[in-house]
Recover the amino acids of this structure.
């Protein structure tokens, strides 16, 4: 990764999972990071745009540090970012975050419960901390 | 992914854009889910778009085995172009910005605390998806099994 990347916002790329709460958790954690917890330090982009080969999207992942947030083990966000030539500095799995909250009902594919928002915020804060380290030129544990 | 449980019934595939960057992406996903879960649960299925686009044969055969409606958030139409490139022609393609015009201006991409503009946008788009779905089923010679139209 070029040193220039450290000056750019870190791209937080969520999965697009539509049918389960994990997909919604990945997106809401992303929006919490980009719009609230790490404004200016992070940005996002459409995963489908990247997958369809949009030149701007591909160039963006190749010139920014990337953190992916995936809802399921198929890891579409991580895999597609890597296929597009991006470096995934950190690959977050929503399932791992949920392991720390056994028994909670995070919500549905359409709406999060209060517990779900707590999980989303926890993911967002971890992502924000990693994004700040990456912007400072440090490495983070993958 | 919501998979067809009854292989005998024709189900229409609805592929929503992922559109994480824009409110219209959230509208397209929520409208698609409203059709799948409430308005036409027995006549529709879906698949995550990036999974479909990056998937293997099974996932990519989706539009070959289902008449498919794409719902895109913006004029880039990733859902439509991706589906047609990797799987086959779509039966209908809908674009949220065409349907809503400036009405999406007050909408947000987060689902937290949705306001009246968000709810109206999802309602309008889901109703247009249902209209398209019913047309497709008619063309296929299958009456819509219906659902909760409210």
């Amino acid at each position: 990764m070029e040193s220039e990347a450290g000056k750019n916002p870190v791209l937080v790329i969520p999965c697009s999972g539509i049918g389960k709460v994990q997909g919604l958790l990945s997106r809401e954690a992303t929006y919490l990071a980009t719009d609230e917890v790490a404004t200016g330090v992070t940005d996002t982009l459409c995963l489908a745009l990247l997958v369809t080969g949009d030149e701007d999207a591909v160039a963006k992942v190749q010139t920014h540090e990337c953190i992916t947030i995936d809802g399921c083990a198929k890891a579409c966000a991580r895999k597609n970012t890597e296929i597009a030539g991006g470096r995934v500095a950190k690959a977050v799995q929503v399932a791992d975050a949920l392991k720390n909250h056994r028994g909670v009902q995070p919500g549905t594919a359409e709406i999060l419960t209060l517990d779900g928002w707590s999980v989303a915020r926890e993911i967002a804060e971890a992502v924000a901390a990693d994004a700040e380290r990456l912007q400072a030129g440090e490495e983070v544990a993958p | 992914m919501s998979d067809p449980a009854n292989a005998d019934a024709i189900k229409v595939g609805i592929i929503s854009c992922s559109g994480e960057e824009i409110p219209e992406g959230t509208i397209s996903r929520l409208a698609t889910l409203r059709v799948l879960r409430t308005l036409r649960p027995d006549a529709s299925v879906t698949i995550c778009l990036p999974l479909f686009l990056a998937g293997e044969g099974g996932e990519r055969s989706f539009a070959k085995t289902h008449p498919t409606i794409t719902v895109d958030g913006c004029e880039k139409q990733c859902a439509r172009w991706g589906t047609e490139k990797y799987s086959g022609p779509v039966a209908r393609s809908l674009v949220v910005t065409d349907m809503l015009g400036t009405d999406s201006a007050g909408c947000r991409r987060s689902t937290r605390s949705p306001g009246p503009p968000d709810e109206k946008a999802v309602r309008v788009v889901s109703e247009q998806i249902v209209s398209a779905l019913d047309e497709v089923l008619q063309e296929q010679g299958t009456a819509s099994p219906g659902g909760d139209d409210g």
Q: What stands out?
A: The beta strands of chain A are 10-14, 42-43, 66-70, 88-93.
